Amino acid sequence: MTGKPRVVILGGGFGGMYAALEFERALARGADVDVTLVNRDNFFLFTPMLHEVAASDLDSTNIVSPIRKLLRRVTFFHGDIEAIDLVQKRVGLSHGHEQHCHALPYDHLVLALGSTTNFFDIPGLADRAFTMKSLSDAMVLRNHLIANLEEADFECGGTLRASLLNFVVAGGGFAGVETIAAMNDFLREAVRFFPHLRADMLRIILVSAGKIILPELGEKLGAYAQRKLMEQHVELHAHCKVTAVTDRDVTLSDGTTITTNTLVWTAGVSPHPLLDTLPCPKAKGRVLVNEYLEVPGWSGLWAFGDCALVPDPKTGASHPPTAQHALREGRVAAQNILATVRGDRLKPFRYSTLGLLAPIGKRTGVANILGVNFSGFIAWWLWRTIYLLKLPRFEKKILVALDWTLDVLFSKDLVHFRTTRPRTLPLPAAELKKSA
């Protein structure tokens, strides 16, 4: 026990990591607190570039930063959160191959747990859909796309080609549009390396519940994005939802059935399930906080990002759960915890969205920055420039810039990475005869 106020941050996404970085700076200036960040991964994932990993535009390691390289003064706990006791002010944690358990006491607890995928109880969806929330999600999807092309190229795959070469993405928001645009570029470039396949065999389909995709950017940019995707041979099912999924097909609410073994689900998120166990006030599963990011009625409890409803006095609603809001909320929460420790005045969270950007394939994009609309190449260039500047660590900026430069000069990588151990025993004789 150090006798210092103990701060525990749960979650290493944008909110949690930027709170920890703010504490890191404060500790370098001599702040008298003991800070621990808890995260199940030992790296910070730059999620805005996740779709580029899935489409072989970027190496997977270039969009992650080891937490131990980012934080030298803040303690890092690599493990899982098992339970939170707000009354006793303790967090139950586990880690290691044998899941050793620890009880970590705190004076200030920061909830930055993020969100999980919401499958809305759609039959078959949770078991069969690909998601785009983690680095492993992007790598699994990339492997799957390449494996489908490899299988479809063989003559014996002819009867399965519809299932193998039809690809569906559900969700007309930023994640869905960026994912399908990247997949479309990747697949249409890759297919020319497979002698028995043609680009016209590919069906790449976006399912959107709204009338216009990317509604956050407004109707004009949304319509532009739709038009550009359709010019790139992406099929669009608007005003439509996924209603059922099997191993061989996806059923839509407009009655369409698509034969496919690929559905990427980006159409819904839920607050972290641990929040359900907490007795603090919540709405729609998210923790209610005041303008200082404190949870009313619970001393030393703070929350922000996807797991909290942060009030916006300008609109009377809550701030959107975006990365640009979460990282700023993390900084303000850290500053307010330090102010509480010192007995200083707290700072209310005030922020308005500076801009929204999305790449939509073929070096085109859409963007709204400070109320000004951009589209085409300039919007794509702005997306790459802004997010490259936001990427943590100079080393990663250089590696990503190099990847992007090489992507202009060379075709995308088609290496299929196996994640299972290779077969070591020969096939039985009967199986060999059957396959001959």
Describe the overall structure.
- The chain is an alpha/beta fold and 436 residues long.
- Helix content is 32%, strand content 25%.
- Strands 5-2-1-9-22 form a 5-stranded parallel β-sheet, covered by helices on one side.
- A hairpin with a 4-residue loop joins strand 7 and strand 8 (100-105).
- The longest helix has 20 residues, at 323-342.
- The termini are far apart.
The proportion of residues forming helix, as a percent range, comes to 25-40%
Q: β content, as a range?
A: 15-25%
Query: How confident is the prediction overall: mean pLDDT?
Result: 93
User: Architecture of the largest domain in CATH?
Assistant: 3-Layer(bba) Sandwich
The beta-strand count equals 26
* Largest sheet: spatial strand order: 5-2-1-9-22
The SS-based structural class is alpha/beta
Whole-number count of domains:
2
Radius of gyration: 23 Å
Terminal-residue CA separation:
69 Å
Shape: globular
Low-confidence stretches: none
User: Within the CATH hierarchy, at the fold level, what is the topology of the largest domain?
Assistant: FAD/NAD(P)-binding domain
Query: What is the helix tally?
Result: 12
- Under CATH at level 1, the class of the largest domain stands as Alpha Beta
- Biggest β-sheet, characterized? 5 strands, parallel
Task: Spell out the key features of this protein.
single chain, 436 residues, alpha/beta, FAD/NAD(P)-binding domain, 25% strand, globular
